[in-house]
Design goal:
40% of the residues lie in helices and 20% in strands. The chain binds 5-S-methyl-1-O-phosphono-5-thio-D-ribulose (MRU). The site of 5-S-methyl-1-O-phosphono-5-thio-D-ribulose has 18 residues, from α2 and β11.
């Protein structure tokens, strides 16, 4: 997608130096800072402190991380150690394990002198596949949007789409998952307007989704997270679409904290609630999302403090609570399958239940 009119990906391979360039998302939306990753430690740190984030992008970055490790030492012991370091960075997004397993599976049968080359090629392949996957998700999502638009009383009015967190191109290699259909609708000339929820505490909606949509020229309005129910109740939302960090084999969905409340409110007001997911985000080994998906616990400081840009243009963090306030910071929640209208995948639209997902599994 584009930044200031120039096409970019959220992670770009540097072939000469065999490194990876990322947009450091901790500086967005105020500064577009590129950062070079050259070592296993660089990649692990970038995932851990959320310079890169979003399930598919975490996976792609981890794949480069394994390459960096194997370039130094391609023994079985080093491979497993690097796998474990990267795997421990963030617990909820299954794409991390998916990408690490994929690279490990590909390189393991080879001798140590060939492994780094194999890992580099696999990291590139993961990135290319991610772009194609997300484009396909966008096409399927666009069909759903067209159908919803056609049923509106005033079909010339914009389609009002609500999303949460950032499941756009900054969360993937390109296009995004939930935002991909929005881009494709906009590019196809459909009138679309996006309700962007702030996504406290880290504000991925306010900082990242708003940044992306602004750069692409898609009309959007920022709302505080608590406004979602009100807008759904007033008929101001035609469809909700979000991304996900892990889907169970029975269709439960983990996504950024606050997603579950949106799903409940959408159900109450009969508004479709779609989850855009690449197949790489489905964890086929688990069924019950509430019991089995690990939920990341993050620092209380993210809740008690807020970062921003001062009037003088300096990035600052301010305390918003009484000194010493205890805070709990669950990074994700689980939306039960029953609240999900359907899953939008690269293979098409599937009901969020075990039987339908078995059909999807058979297609892979
Ligand atoms: O904590 P984050 O910013 O990594 O959380 C990201 C999300 O919750 C996204 O919605 C999800 O990873 C899907 S990204 C296509």
């Amino acid at each position: 997608m584009k930044i200031h009119g120039q096409p970019h990906r959220s992670i770009e391979a540097e072939h000469d130096t065999r490194s990876a360039r990322i947009i450091d998302q901790t500086f967005l939306p105020h500064q577009v800072e590129w950062r070079e990753l050259r070592t296993l430690e660089d990649a692990a740190e970038a995932i851990q402190v959320m310079r890169v984030r979003g399930a598919p992008l975490i996976g792609a970055t981890a794949a480069f991380g394994l390459f960096f490790a194997l370039r130094e030492d391609a023994s079985d012991v080093a491979l497993q150690k690097a796998y474990d370091i990267l795997h421990a960075t963030r617990p909820t997004a299954i794409n991390l394990r998916w990408a690490l397993d994929r690279v490990k599976r590909v390189v393991s049968p080879y001798g140590v002198e060939e492994r780094a080359e194999m890992a580099w090629n696999e990291a590139l392949a993961i990135c290319e596949a991610d772009v194609a996957t997300n484009h396909a998700i966008g096409e399927h999502g666009l069909e759903l949007f067209r159908a919803i638009q056609a049923k509106k009383a005033d079909s010339s009015a914009p389609l009002n789409v609500m999303t949460h967190c950032n499941a756009g191109w900054l969360a993937t290699v390109d296009w995004g998952t939930a935002i991909s259909p929005i881009y494709q609708a906009h590019d196809a000339g459909m009138k679309v307007h996006v309700w962007v929820s702030e996504t406290r505490p880290r504000g991925q909606g306010a900082s990242l989704t708003a940044f992306e949509l602004k750069e692409h020229g898609v009309p959007y309005t920022l709302i505080v997270d608590n406004n979602a129910g009100h807008l759904l109740q007033r008929g101001l939302v035609d469809v909700v679409i979000v991304g996900t960090d892990r889907v169970t084999a029975h269709g439960d969905v983990a996504n950024k904290i606050g997603t579950y409340l949106k799903a409940l409110a959408a159900k109450a007001h009969d508004v479709p609630f779609y989850v855009a997911t690449p197949v790489s985000t489905i964890d086929w080994t688990i069924a019950d999302g509430i019991r089995e998906i690990p939920i990341e616990q993050r620092s209380a400081r993210e809740v008690t403090h807020m970062p921003g840009l001062s009037a003088a243009g300096v990035r600052e963090e301010v305390l918003i609570t009484p000194e010493g306030t205890q805070a709990r910071n669950d990074g994700f929640d689980v939306t039960p399958a029953a609240l999900v209208t359907a899953l939008v995948t690269e293979y098409g639209v599937f009901a969020a239940n075990a039987a339908s997902l078995q059909q999807l599994q058979a297609k892979r």
